[in-house]
Amino acid sequence: MAVNSAELIEIINLIAHDIQENKDFLTELDSAIGDADHGINMSKGFKAVNEKISTMGDKDCGSILKTVGMTLVSTVGGASGPLYGTAFMRAGQAVGAKKELDFNDLPIILDAALEGIKMRGKAEKGEKTIIDALEPAVEVLKKSSPVDIKLMEEAVKAAKDGVEYTKGIIAKKGRASYLGERSIGHQDPGATSCYIMLAAVYKAIHD
Ligand code: ADP
Ligand code: MG
Ligand code: MG
C-alpha cells in the first residue's frame, strides 16, 4: 500500500462518510450515558473537515492530518472535539512532510494519536473511553513488522473487542462518569466512533 496526499484525503472522506452514516447510532449511545450529542458532534466536525481538506491534494500528509485536527478542535464543542483533534494533530506531527504513506506508518500514526488523547484526556485503558478501542488496536499494530493488511484487520478486531468490553465497565472519565455504576451495561459512544474510524481506514486500504 502506498497512499499519496489525494488518497489520504479520500480515506479521511470515507471516515467522514461512515461517521455520517452512524450519526444517529452514536447519538443514541450517548443518550444512555451522556448528553445525546456524540453523533451530532462528530458529524458536524467531519462535515467541516470534508470541506477544509478538499483543496489540499497538493499538500503533504502531515499538513492534511494537522488540518483535520485543528478543524475538529474548532468545530466540535464536546469532549470528543479536543480529544480527536489532538489525536489528528499529533498524527500529523508524527508523519511530518511525507507526501506518501505506507502500512508501516499506521502504528506510528495511531500511536501518536493515542498518546495525544491520553495527554489531553488523562484516561487509561479500562475507564470506558476512546482509549478502550484505540489502545488495543495500537498494541496489535506494534507487535510485528512489517505491517500488512492482515495485521490491520486484527487491529480493527481488537478495537471492536474493546468496544464490547466498555459495556461491562464503569465510566471513570467524561460525562458518563457522573452515572457511576449506572454506566455499566452501556456501550461507550467514543470507543464506538473510534472503532468506526479504524474500520473505515481498513476498508479504504483493503479495496
Ligand atoms: P461530551 O461528553 O462533551 O458531550 P461527546 O459526547 O462528543 O462529548 O463525547 C463523549 C465521549 O468522549 C465518551 O463516550 C468518551 O469515549 C470520550 N471521552 C470523554 N472523556 C474522555 C477522556 N478524558 N479521555 C478519552 N475519551 C474521553
Ligand atoms: Mg455527549
Ligand atoms: Mg456534549
TrEMBL record:
GO cellular component: cytosol
Keyword entries, A-Z: Glycerol metabolism, Kinase, Transferase
Pfam families documented for this protein: Dak2 (PF02734)
Biological-process GO terms, alphabetical: glycerol catabolic process
Keyword Calcium: no
Enzyme Commission (EC) number: 2.7.1.121
Reactions performed catalytically: dihydroxyacetone + phosphoenolpyruvate = dihydroxyacetone phosphate + pyruvate
Signal peptide residues on this chain, from the entry's feature table: none
SMART domains noted in UniProt: Dak2
Enzyme class: transferase
Transmembrane among keywords: no
Top-level taxonomic group: Bacteria
Domain DhaL: 6-203
Any GO molecular function: phosphoenolpyruvate-glycerone phosphotransferase activity
UniProt pathway annotation: Polyol metabolism; glycerol degradation
Stated role: ADP-binding subunit of the dihydroxyacetone kinase, which is responsible for the phosphoenolpyruvate (PEP)-dependent phosphorylation of dihydroxyacetone. DhaL-ADP is converted to DhaL-ATP via a phosphoryl group transfer from DhaM and transmits it to dihydroxyacetone binds to DhaK.
Oligomer and partners: Homodimer. The dihydroxyacetone kinase complex is composed of a homodimer of DhaM, a homodimer of DhaK and the subunit DhaL.
Full protein name: phosphoenolpyruvate--glycerone phosphotransferase
Native source organism of the sequence: Tepidanaerobacter acetatoxydans (strain DSM 21804 / JCM 16047 / Re1)
